[in-house]
Design a protein that fits this description.
The chain is of the alpha/beta class and 208 residues long. It has helices at 16-28, 50-61, 82-92, 104-107, 116-120, 137-152, 172-180, 191-199; strands spanning 2-9, 33-38, 67-69, 96-103, 124-128, 159-162. Helix 2 (50-61) runs antiparallel to helix 8.
Length: 208
């Protein structure tokens, strides 16, 4: 049985932090592939056009054969839910043990997701600590255990582990802020992504 991971997100834009998380997941649990799933219309966010976010994503991962982009969310009408993404990808990749790469802050909300309790048991969860919030690894583990306890209290189980990643204080919101302020973003994103942002004049006047 192959082992694959889903890495969903807005990726607005993708940066070295995202790539580091995916690379660490690849080796920490011996994955065959990480499938990047950009969200079509992220709720509560005004994001760059889907085509731009996909373009930057494809440029950023093109030299890694273990990374691939799925446009599964673009082919779905109506509200996109995580459980639908997993079910659609499962149809394309049968006989797979699934993992889901997720940030700690988003993982905290899992019990409130649409069919979140069901989804929790359909894959194992690889959690990137929320380092920008200043939490220690011990505090991150405690937060994960609290989520696990919420699910156990409702007779659901979940498999999870924290990703062992270096502390990288970079975020997409910081990069967008730097672009608006015309500050340099070299070394925050791959050079191909930096060029794409410049050539397409992305984020220059965008509000959060």
């Amino acid at each position: 049985m192959q082992q694959l991971a889903i890495f969903g997100g807005t990726f607005d834009p993708i940066h070295w932090g995202h790539l580091l998380i995916a690379e660490r997941a690849l080796h920490q649990v011996s994955l065959e592939k990480v499938i990047w799933v950009p969200s079509l219309n992220p709720p509560h966010k005004q994001a760059a056009l889907f085509e731009h976010r996909v373009g930057m994503l494809q440029l950023a991962i093109e030299d890694n054969p273990a990374f691939t982009v799925s446009l599964v969310e673009a082919n779905r009408s109506g509200t996109s839910y995580a459980i639908n993404t997993l079910m659609d990808l499962s149809a394309s990749y049968p006989n797979t043990h699934w993992y889901w790469i997720i940030g700690l802050d988003t993982f905290q909300t899992l019990p409130r997701w649409y069919r979140g309790h069901e989804l929790a048991q359909m894959c194992d969860w690889l959690i990137a600590p929320r380092l920008l919030g200043g939490e220690t690894i011990t505090q991150s583990k405690l937060i994960c255990k609290q989520v696990e306890q919420q699910l156990i209290e409702q007779s659901h189980t979940i498999g999870w582990q924290l990703l062992d990643i270096p502390l990288v204080g970079v975020s997409s919101s910081l990069i967008r802020k730097f672009c608006r302020e015309r500050q340099l973003i070299r070394y925050l994103v791959p050079e191909s992504v930096r060029s794409y942002i410049t050539n397409n004049n992305l984020y220059s006047n965008k509000s959060e």
